[in-house]
């Protein structure tokens, strides 16, 4: 057995799975401290379907905790960013395009240093250890607790980032953490640097959250390993989360899309995940979310780490409804829905109240919304359907029909059909599809590198990289018998000599001893 949990801004969903069978599924309100809500959800699972603690082989958790901390600019560590590239790149220093509120929240310190490489691997300038030591002295005086290092073209040659980290680590207190850009982002110095700074600012919170989750789960007598789901639908262990909390940012919508594919058996479909605050729309291709090809903005900051291609709009069960314009969201009562909504005795008109008044949902006390004008209710519901349909249409890459699957607790807001798209598929256990998606997550590894591929060498190069990807997946905990190559991308780089090609290979497999 395994337990899958997804912590959203409004609800914490949990499932108890035995193979592909859902033994129990629950939805509980998310708590301000996140971890106690998880404990309540696990206890509710036990009440639905009793299980022995020793029968649980793994606990898989998806959480929006880290991205929410960034968006809300809270719980972020004082962070320094060191860019290796002088004399190049000085005209556009780090954090240039960041919102002022975030720069202040991380108490940012910015340093430019010599180093970096050209696109063809030639060094821009040698590393200057004395320069870095002087910068370390300033960091120490400023109370910096986390450092992000980004070197120009480090995905092609990471040696200077590693060397700079070694020099700085020797000069700074032991508690200071380091994030290196070649481990986090892709080609593109500004976006990769931004992702690394975000990761660095969240390192302390990552450690706190993991400690809290472990304490909660262990306190219930469950000793199984704890894993968190990450942006690409695969798992990471506790140590990985401590080092790379940024990898969890899109785990919520990713889990929902994976759960939708699992519960419907569809390898290709559009998924609408309606929660309490937002509706996330994405496409499933080959059973996994389609990945964003370009940079992705997070909290107003452009990044280029692995993220699913998702559109989020401010429509959810807790969304506020304007009684004059009939517009919905983006403001939401969030996890206070059962306190604030009219049908639950509150005084705030929410989308859930409209769904109950329109006969789409059976929640709370319908008498409390009987006074709403039917014409107004119909207008709001039509607007919700229209905005969701528009978002799905924007995600499509062809005019061909595509199945639409609705999941999430807020899916009751939607009609049975959508304009131009037809009937919506509502799978069994749709309300906890995100937790199902977390529970079926696999272990993965991705190789993202630049190789010289000349005539006659392609098969040999790709075979070696596939073996490397499989080996890394196994090292991360995948069962060797289940590892497969999921995806291979080859992108020629015309401005580099010698047949330079960016190659991305992804391998996935079931967690060893925990077959989904």
From TrEMBL:
One of its GO terms (molecular function) is hydrolase activity. Residues 2-171 form the Hydantoinase/oxoprolinase N-terminal domain. Gene3D superfamilies: 3.30.420.40. SUPFAM superfamilies: Actin-like ATPase domain. This is Hydantoinase/oxoprolinase family protein. Residues 192-360 form the Hydantoinase A/oxoprolinase domain. PANTHER family: 5-OXOPROLINASE RELATED, HYDANTOINASE_OXOPROLINASE. InterPro entries: ATPase_NBD, Hydant_A_N, Hydantoinase_A, Oxoprolinase-like.
């Amino acid at each position: 057995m395994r337990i899958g949990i997804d912590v959203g801004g409004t609800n914490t969903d949990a499932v108890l799975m035995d193979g592909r069978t859902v033994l129990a599924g629950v939805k509980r309100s998310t708590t301000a401290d996140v971890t106690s809500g998880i404990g309540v959800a696990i206890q509710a699972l036990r009440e639905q379907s009793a299980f022995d603690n020793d029968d649980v082989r793994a606990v898989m958790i998806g959480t929006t905790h880290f991205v929410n901390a960034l968006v809300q600019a809270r719980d972020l560590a004082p962070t320094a960013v060191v860019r290796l590239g002088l004399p190049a790149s000085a005209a556009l220093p780090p954090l240039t395009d960041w919102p002022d509120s975030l720069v202040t929240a991380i108490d940012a310190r910015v340093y430019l240093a010599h180093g970096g490489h050209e696109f063809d691997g030639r060094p821009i300038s040698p590393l200057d250890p004395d320069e870095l030591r002087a910068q370390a002295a300033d960091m120490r005086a400023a109370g910096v607790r986390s450092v992000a290092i980004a070197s120009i073209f480090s995905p092609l040659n990471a040696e200077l980032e590693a060397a700079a980290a070694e020099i700085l680590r020797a000069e700074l207190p032991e508690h200071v953490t380091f994030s290196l850009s070649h481990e986090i982002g892709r080609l593109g110095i500004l976006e990769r640097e931004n992702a690394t700074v975000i990761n660095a600012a969240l390192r302390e919170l990552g450690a706190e959250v993991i400690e809290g989750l472990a304490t909660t789960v262990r306190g219930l007598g469950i000793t199984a390993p704890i894993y968190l789901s990450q942006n690409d639908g695969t798992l990471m262990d506790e140590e990985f989360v401590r080092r790379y909390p940024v990898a969890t940012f899109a785990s919520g919508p990713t889990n929902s899309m994976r759960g939708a594919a699992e519960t419907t058996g569809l390898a290709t479909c559009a998924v609408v995940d309606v929660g309490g605050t937002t509706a996330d729309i994405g496409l499933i291709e080959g059973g996994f979310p389609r990945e964003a090809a370009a940079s992705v903005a997070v909290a107003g900051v452009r990044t280029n780490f692995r993220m699913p291609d998702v559109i989020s709009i401010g429509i959810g069960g807790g969304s506020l409804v304007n009684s004059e314009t009939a517009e919905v969201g983006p403001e939401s009562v969030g996890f206070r829905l059962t306190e604030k909504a009219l049908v639950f005795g509150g005084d705030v008109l929410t989308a859930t109240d409209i769904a109950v008044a329109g006969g789409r949902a059976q929640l709370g006390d319908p008498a409390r919304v009987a006074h709403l004008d039917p014409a107004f209710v119909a207008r709001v519901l039509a607007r919700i359907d229209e905005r969701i349909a528009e978002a799905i249409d924007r995600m499509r890459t062809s005019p061909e029909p595509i199945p639409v699957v609705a999941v999430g607790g807020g899916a009751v807001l939607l009609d049975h059909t959508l304009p131009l798209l037809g009937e919506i598929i509502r799978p069994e256990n749709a309300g906890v599809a995100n937790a199902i998606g977390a529970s079926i997550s696999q272990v993965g590894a991705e190789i993202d590198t630049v190789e010289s591929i000349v005539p006659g060498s392609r098969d040999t190069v790709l075979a070696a990289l596939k073996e490397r990807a499989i080996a890394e997946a196994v090292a991360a905990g995948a069962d060797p018998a289940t590892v497969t190559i999921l995806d291979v991308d080859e992108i020629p780089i015309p401005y580099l000599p010698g047949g330079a090609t960016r190659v991305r290979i992804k391998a996935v497999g079931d967690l060893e001893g925990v077959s989904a």
